[in-house]
Amino acid sequence: MKKLALFAFAAMLAVSVEAQLQTPQPSPEAKLKQTVGLTEVKVEYSRPSMRGRAIFGDLVPYDQLWRTGANKNSTITFSDDVTIDGQEVKAGSYAVFTKPGQSSWEVIFYADTNNWGTPQNWDDSKVAAKTTVQVYNMPMSVETFTMTIDDLHNNGATLGMLWDKSYVGVKFEVPTLTKAQKSIETVMAGPSAGDYYASASYYYEEGKDLNKAKEWIAKAVELRPDAFWVMRRQSLILAKLGDKKGAIEAAKQSLKVAEEAGNADYVKLNKDSLKEWGAL
C-alpha cells in the first residue's frame, strides 16, 4: 500500500510540474495604446521573427492575403469614428489584413476579428476600409515584425508595419477638431480660467479664430491675475495678431509675476520675447 501511495503521489507531482511548465512563444503577443488627438487607439498583434528566413515573396507570398503577423488576427481599435483614405470607419475593433507586394501593399480593415489567421469565408460586406500604400525599403533589417503608431499630430497619425527591410504606413484621421469644438462650446457655458486658457491655447496652436482666442485669454487673465503662464500665452496671441504694444505689456506683466514666483523658465521666455520685440 505504501508503494502504491508513493507512486500516486509521484504521478500527481509530475502532473503538477507539467501544468506549471512555461516556455517562450515563437511569436509573442504585443499591445500598443496611443492617444491621437482626443481618440484612443489600441493595436494588438503577435510578432513573428525572421530567424534566418526570407520573408516577403517567400514566407509571406506576394499578392496573397496575409494575417499581418502571426496567430490570431492582428487588430486595431478606435474609440471614435476615423477616416482612412477618405473612407469613414466607425468606432470599434478591426482585423488588419494585408496583401504585400513588391512595390505596394493592399491594407484591409475587416470588421470580423474572431479569425485565427485569415477568414475561411471572406465577406466583402465586412470590409470597413481598403487602401493601397507604398513600400519603403529600409537600409537596415528589422528582425521581428513590428506595428507602430507614428507621425502623431492633433488630427491623425500613421499605422506603421515593419519587417525585414520593408516599411508601409497607413495614414488615418481622427475627429479632434469636431470633438474639441464641441467640448469648447459646452464648457464655455460656464468656463473656469483653465477652460478659457485651454480654449485660447488650442485656437492659437491651430491657427483658428485668434480674435476669439484673444477674448478668451483676456478672461483667463482676469480670473487668474497670478498666473504668469496665462499672461505669457496672452502675449503670444497678441503678437500673432500684430498687436506688438499689447504683447509687450502682457509679457512685462508675465515677467513681473514670474519673477515674484521665482520661475526662472518663464522669466527667460518673457525676456527673450521682449528682446525680440525691441522692449529690452
Describe the structure.
37% of the residues lie in helices and 31% in strands. It is an alpha+beta fold and 280 residues long. The strands form three sheets. A six-stranded antiparallel beta sheet has the order 1-2-3-6-7-8, with no helix packed on it. Helix 3 runs antiparallel to helix 4 and helix 6 (244-261) packs antiparallel against helix 7.
Number of helices: 7
Arrangement of strands in the largest sheet: 1-2-3-6-7-8
Structural class assignment: alpha+beta
The average pLDDT value, as a whole number, equals 92
State the total count of DSSP E strands: 10
Distance between the termini: 99 Å
Tell me about the largest β-sheet. 6 strands, antiparallel
Instruction: Describe the global form.
Output: elongated
Percent range for helical residues?
A: 25-40%
Share in β-strands: 25-35%
